[in-house]
Amino acid sequence: MNQAVAFNNNLSAKLPQVRGTYEEDASLKKYTWFRTGGPAEVLYTPADIDDLMVFMNGKPRDTPVTMIGLGSNMIIRDGGVPGVVIRLGKGLANVNVRDDKILVGGGALDSAVAAAARDAGLTGFEFLSGVPGTIGGALRMNAGAFDQAMQEIVVYARVLDLQGNLQTIAAEDLGFGYRSTSVPEGWIFAGAMLQGMPGERGAIAQKMEEIRAFREESQPMREKTGGSTFHNPEHGEAAGRKAWEIIDGAGCRGLTLGGAKISEKHCNFLINTGDASSQDLEDLGEMVRKRVLSASGVSLEWEVRRIGLPLSTTESKA
Ligand SMILES: Cc1cc2nc3c(=O)[nH]c(=O)nc-3n(C[C@H](O)[C@H](O)[C@H](O)COP(=O)(O)OP(=O)(O)OC[C@H]3O[C@@H](n4cnc5c(N)ncnc54)[C@H](O)[C@@H]3O)c2cc1C
What we know:
By secondary structure, the chain is α+β, with helices and mostly antiparallel strands. It has helices spanning 3-7, 49-58, 110-119, 135-141, 201-218, 243-249, 278-296, 311-317; strands at 21-26, 40-45, 65-68, 74-76, 81-87, 95-98, 101-105, 122-123, 144-145, 148-149, 154-160, 166-170, 188-195, 197-198, 224-228, 256-257, 260-262, 269-272, 305-307. It is built from 8 helices and 19 strands. It is globular, with a radius of gyration of 20 Å. It starts with a helix and ends with a helix. The structure holds flavin-adenine dinucleotide (FAD). The site of flavin-adenine dinucleotide (FAD) has 32 residues, from β3, α4, β9, β13 and β15. Flavin-adenine dinucleotide (FAD) binds at residues 33, 67-74, 88, 106, 130-134, 136-138, 140-141, 143-145, 188-189, 219, 221, 225-227, 305.
């Protein structure tokens, strides 16, 4: 069935004129690491930050807006995403080193920022070399690895609110928590100023190589996956334990449902083995949560963001 018929709102005719691009009924599969999920009613790629502000300011108030980065921590449900999905492209992917700071756009790749820092002899960004997303996604998720996280390197973020007002928010006011910030859902991370420290290029490069080798060894980096599926528990008796250990203890390593599988290499990673639907992935995640709860009493919380509608919802609207 045609998903555009399911949405059936001729939405792009109601959107402001922009210099960026609108694509109706746009497949999003290629924009996620899982390679699953339905289309965006409209996919908007802004030309630059001014264009994005024009869009946010001029869009109908009741049009939902959803941000995606590289889709490396995201399941897009099979029925697709109503409203406008925004993907920051080259127009917001700037990476400019200024002494010991780096000014970055929200669409810049984390790996590109880490590489620019290495080339400039700035340390503190090495952990970003292994996080396969954008700076916007890293800010939203307070991405972290190897005992470092975004909150330690952000000086300020440039954020657009729902009306398109550009605000500069200092790091201490971003409400960074474990894989989260307190910035309201729907606000857009358009960029940030990041702080590094002078370091020795060879040592930085070596640390990045160690990170790459460790990840290759311990994570399914070459699979269709979505990063950590569940948060490591922060509260209760399980606080401090790793989600993968608890999942392993509940006998879920290698568990499958349809085309979805719990990674044998790292039990906190879901994998699309080839023909999984987003429903398969989400159902397998829920099956793991149930088994873990029954085996250990731990209620795992999703870390992977799940957006959009299940297929049945959009089918029934058509
Ligand atoms: C193999 C693999 C390894 C990973 N390892 C790590 C790791 O070590 N540490 C870690 O923290 N994560 C890890 N992840 C998860 C993921 O890479 C991070 O969470 C990353 O920061 C997500 O960035 P993204 O651009 O892909 O965002 P997406 O997955 O596209 O989106 C994630 C969330 O951010 C929001 N978002 C995206 N861009 C913006 C924006 N510009 N403004 C506002 N909101 C936005 C989305 O709406 C969504 O809610 C891994 C993932 C994979 C596949």
